């Protein structure tokens, strides 16, 4: 789904940015350009970032050892 219509950023692009190493909303914003125009999408973008980071942390905890993600 489109999160930011101004720059054409989808929830998938936000998740991809996190999987590629972004660890905060600020880093996702810099990497994707989300919420850099009118800002109406900021709340939804933050929600996607929060949910994705929470999901990653939960899956890491289930592994029993720290996993590192890196862009190959």
Walk me through this protein's architecture:
The protein is built from 3 helices and 2 strands, in the order E-E-H-H-H. With 72 residues, the protein is mainly alpha-helical. The chain has a single domain (2-63), classed as Orthogonal Bundle (Arc Repressor Mutant, subunit A), CATH 1.10.10.1100. It has a two-stranded antiparallel sheet with strand order 1-2. Helix 1 (11-19) crosses helix 3. The termini are far apart. The relative contact order is 0.19. The model has no long low-confidence stretch (mean pLDDT 90). It comes from Pseudomonas helleri. Its cofactor is [2Fe-2S] cluster. GO terms for molecular function: 2 iron, 2 sulfur cluster binding; metal ion binding.
Strand and helix map with partners:
Layout lengths: L1 E3 L4 E2 H9 L5 H8 L9 H22 L9
Antiparallel strand pairs: 1-2
Helix pairs in contact: 1-3
- Strand pairing plus helix content: what structural class? mainly alpha
Mean pLDDT: 90
- Total of domains: 1
Report the helical percentage: 40-55%
Major sheet attributes: 2 strands, antiparallel
Family: Belongs to the Bfd family.
Keywords: 2Fe-2S, Electron transport, Iron, Iron-sulfur, Metal-binding, Transport
InterPro entries: BFD-associated_ferredoxin (IPR052371), BFD-like_2Fe2S-bd_dom (IPR007419), BFD-like_2Fe2S-bd_dom_sf (IPR041854)
Protein name: Bacterioferritin-associated ferredoxin
């Amino acid at each position: 789904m489109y999160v930011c219509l101004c720059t054409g950023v989808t929830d998938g692009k936000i998740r991809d940015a996190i999987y590629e190493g972004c660890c905060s909303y600020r880093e996702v914003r810099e990497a994707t350009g989300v919420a850099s125009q009118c800002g109406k999408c900021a709340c939804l973008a933050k929600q996607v970032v929060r949910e994705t980071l929470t999901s990653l942390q939960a899956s890491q905890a289930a592994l029993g050892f720290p996993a590192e993600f890196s862009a190959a």
